[in-house]
Amino acid sequence: MPLPKSIATVCLSGALPDKLEAAALVGFQGVEIFENDLLTYDGSPEEVGRMCRDLGLDVAIYQPFRDFEAMPEPQRRRNLDRAERKFDTMQALGTDLILVCSNTQPATLPEPERAAADLREMAERAAQRGLRVGYEALAWGKQVSLWRQAWDIVRLADHPALGLILDSFHSLSRGDDLAGLDRVPAEKLFFLQLADAPKLSMDVLSWSRHFRLFPGQGELPVAGFLRDILRAGYRGPVSLEIFNDEFRAAPVRRIARDALRSLILLDDAVRAEAPPETVPAQPLPAAPMLSGLEFVEFAVDEAAREQLGGFLGTLGFRRAGQHRSKAVELLRQGGVNLVLNSEPDSAAAERFEMFGPAVCAMALRVDDPARALARAQSLLSPAWQERVGEGEQRIPAIRAPDGTLIYLVQSGSDIWADDFHLLPGAAPAVPPLAGIDHVVQALAPGHLDGFVLFYRAVFGLEPEPVFELPDPFGIVRSRTLASPERSLRLPLNVSESRQTGTGRFVSAYAGAGVHHIAFAAPDAAALVAAAPDAPMLEIPENYYDDLAARFGLPDEELAALQVGHLLYDRDAQGGSFVHAYTHAFQDRFFFEVVERRGGYDQYGAPNAAVRMAAQARRQKK
Amino acid sequence: MPLPKSIATVCLSGALPDKLEAAALVGFQGVEIFENDLLTYDGSPEEVGRMCRDLGLDVAIYQPFRDFEAMPEPQRRRNLDRAERKFDTMQALGTDLILVCSNTQPATLPEPERAAADLREMAERAAQRGLRVGYEALAWGKQVSLWRQAWDIVRLADHPALGLILDSFHSLSRGDDLAGLDRVPAEKLFFLQLADAPKLSMDVLSWSRHFRLFPGQGELPVAGFLRDILRAGYRGPVSLEIFNDEFRAAPVRRIARDALRSLILLDDAVRAEAPPETVPAQPLPAAPMLSGLEFVEFAVDEAAREQLGGFLGTLGFRRAGQHRSKAVELLRQGGVNLVLNSEPDSAAAERFEMFGPAVCAMALRVDDPARALARAQSLLSPAWQERVGEGEQRIPAIRAPDGTLIYLVQSGSDIWADDFHLLPGAAPAVPPLAGIDHVVQALAPGHLDGFVLFYRAVFGLEPEPVFELPDPFGIVRSRTLASPERSLRLPLNVSESRQTGTGRFVSAYAGAGVHHIAFAAPDAAALVAAAPDAPMLEIPENYYDDLAARFGLPDEELAALQVGHLLYDRDAQGGSFVHAYTHAFQDRFFFEVVERRGGYDQYGAPNAAVRMAAQARRQKK
């Protein structure tokens, strides 16, 4: 049996009923009622408690109760009166536990004995009503900021209705750990809050209030933290408390689903070492072994199909197949398959209706499609079924958070012969492509963390650090997810600037998924040279002057780069990257040809500003 | 003679020509060409140099040259080759100065002698072409991060073509100052960059790259820094180098004007103590002495005038005058004048056309309107003239950054009798208002810093720290500007969440200026009680339960608050604040009644979430 999963209402957007409904809908068993959500709501605590019970939600805790302990009189007495009022509220809500976080007031006395006496008094009053008090160290508490300090006070107070509350953010943000927790009696561990966060060098209060993330989205060792507390005997709910400005502004159900997905993944991450009674009976199906992209599919209409076919033809793509029953065409160049779908009444047609020509699906090669699908379903990504004709293949699929279909294709299988009339290939004039190197998606602001969690959880992709790319009109933030063996690379871009220039360019695709596709070429210069009609993006001469200065490239190599509008990058280990971009197709998406040499593992980020400025110039024209 | 004013192209949005044109248009004399702006531009350095000269701009410097000094071979030799290439670029651009910033590479040797030797070699090569090299300490340089370290190396190198470059951000962000700069010979001070910033606890690189501000917008002592360097004998350009994500995403001319405004204000701030030859011959006209708002004017049509008149009537406002020649009406309640303007073909009509009913003007009482106008004009805010009828008053006016008119009215004068038929006032049923306590404006994201600089510069208002107000769907950031004697208080709100709920509510006004007006009432409870028809915003009962717990208010006081839908706050000194809100008028703006007791100087921020949740509930209905 996994521990009950709970979420604090402060994580979610909207009014209190919206939050509760979303939490229940996705499958949480409990909630923390965040005080401000109650105060601003125009229903009584009794009504809120009833609403929770009707939704099948346990009110796990009421929180926070601030700035209570170790205050001088008359504040001390007033705080105890305040506690009594909150006990009334708890009883009306139907919860028996309140969270007291360590005092942040400058006036707090540096006397653990006073703090213990106050908490003991509060716990005694709580116990008279059958209630309990949990004490938590805030990372920025005035006298108490580490869990061991909080535990010393709880031990000193020595009251059965007083226990310890732990929060992964407060400990891990301070670089603290749970060593020594095994000496705390399990019955004194009253509650557990979990939060992840990116590693940021900023004051811990702002970091905590604005940038927390769900476990798996950030960089804190949350799984290890959970494992330690389970080993120490904790058996209560596992609850998320995430303060994040973007989450608070996002649709509530999407965030609630991300939240639960993060806990399901965490359950699995700790199962090997956690006590068996705390984890689900069945492990998650293992993440798929990936071997690249079998195809990428575009939603088009008849006209766009012709135009995109012509555009790709300049890079050597040829018509290689026609679907037996649908208006679906296969283009192929070397190891790259692109599908153009103009079938009416399909998911593709819907996509085209909304966004114009756009990528509507990607097919991943996986070692076991059924297992991959089962894992996705366990992680709250339901299966999706496209209409198929008689005798046609039924390829399992799920939807990415933006609605893009992700097909799960058996590695090594031939998916084409059954459904397509395949056409004999003419020898191409352009050297063959090796495959798809990476697919870049443009996300609307506020979507990055959800995408990261989705790909990390469902496919076991590993997120790389965030890059910031300056463009002529703002900043693009980029984070790449890649499979361990690098057969799948998915950079995700978010533009902070919505209204102008490249920001608009990026955000035009936001929600429409893919923004550009990079093809792997064994020799990028040779490919571009053999494709004289390919509409390559012009790169200014100044760029090559600087390249010469930076890398001391031989003149002939520099000239070859310049004539092909090729960009160049080099890593610290001497690996290098040669790449060129096409113009955008109908201002919607574009293609890149890339060549990796000597183990280069990046994406040419130093050249992004050059690319974006060139694109902005073209848009202006 | 003030020092020449320059700006780095990186401060501004767009392609290089857009940046240069904007800088020239607002009146800068020089520019720093930021390398990346040149590299991504598709014109040659010669063309860029010509463009600058045609615009009357001096190319003050080419920058930055990174990671140069104290590297082991073969990087050392390569860096010198790189420098030669950049000298070519400088000569093509037509500038004689390059900025070398201190090396950030882990491989940099910790040997000042090596750094000095390398810089000496570079300077010698530069000198052969008539060029110069300036060395600057980056705050995050590997071996050199303080200006004194950079100066030690420059002194050691001892070459006439090598000098020191100072940047206020790099020094002040480290808490450093310019003590000892008087021992640096003036001819060794090659260039000066100025930047302000908010005080943020985060790593200095991110802080510098994203959050710099123009002087006067932030919290660093930039004026003192400038004063010290002028006293040390610096006589070169004063140049702005501001990395700010919002500025990079904003219209380029607006930001260029803000930039120059900041330097004009800075010139004036240092004049008293700086050498006379470095400051303008004429001081800026002094900031006006303010004594509150004479009126606020709304753009309406006939229908909205009737409705708004009725809405305000419930708070005791009565029709007090009719304009002699225009469709303009005066409403009055105690010390508050509100003007409803439905005149066709006026600035108000334009405003109404764009935003519906909206505040279109505010009239400030100033000690000397002519001087206030002259100051505004000196600070790049031109005078604005509304059409007036014969014999009517001509009130000087300027426009706020969002186009709102700001009239400058002589304190103590009667502006009404000439232009209005005044109507006899009936004794009002509602106790009289004392005046306008504050006017809150909702800004579009990215506009806050520009507004702060405008009000600070033109009217001498003082910015208070930024508040963050959580609302049900995101975060509202709020910063208040107030006159020293508090007769004018202007909170500015920016919503980070654009698309949902209160975010939409706030951003609906963005650009339309005023979002709510708070009236000062000697007794807020009495006023609300005497205005039973006023459409006051309902506050949930839970709020009062919490108030009781937090402040221990007597039951009768609590009951009085609750019956009047009044909110309550108390400051650390025991001052308190009682306030209530009306519903929004046509979902556009609303009014507040506020009572300050015992020197309370805030705006009830802890209650903002309660207000916003209540508004969101109403919008949903």
Quote the distance from N terminus to C terminus of chain A: 62 Å
Shape of chain A: elongated
Report the C-alpha radius of gyration of chain A, rounded.
Answer: 28 Å
Portion in beta strands of chain A? 15-25%
Arithmetic mean of pLDDT of chain A: 92
The proportion of residues forming helix of chain A, as a percent range, comes to 25-40%
Strand ordering within the main sheet of chain A:
14-15-16-13-9-12-11-10-17
How many helices of chain A? The count is: 21
Please give the most extensive interface between any two protein chains, plus how many residues each contributes.
Answer: A-B, 62 and 62 residues
The structural domain count of chain A equals 3
Please state the structural category of chain A.
alpha/beta
Report the strand count of chain A.
26
CATH superfamily of the largest domain in chain A: Divalent-metal-dependent TIM barrel enzymes
CATH top level assignment of the largest domain in chain A = Alpha Beta
Family (chains A, B): Belongs to the bacterial two-domain DSD family.
Function (chains A, B): Catalyzes the conversion of 3-dehydroshikimate to protocatechuate (3,4-dihydroxybenzoate), a common intermediate of quinate and shikimate degradation pathways.
Keywords (chains A, B): Lyase, Metal-binding
Catalytic activity (chains A, B): 3-dehydroshikimate = 3,4-dihydroxybenzoate + H2O
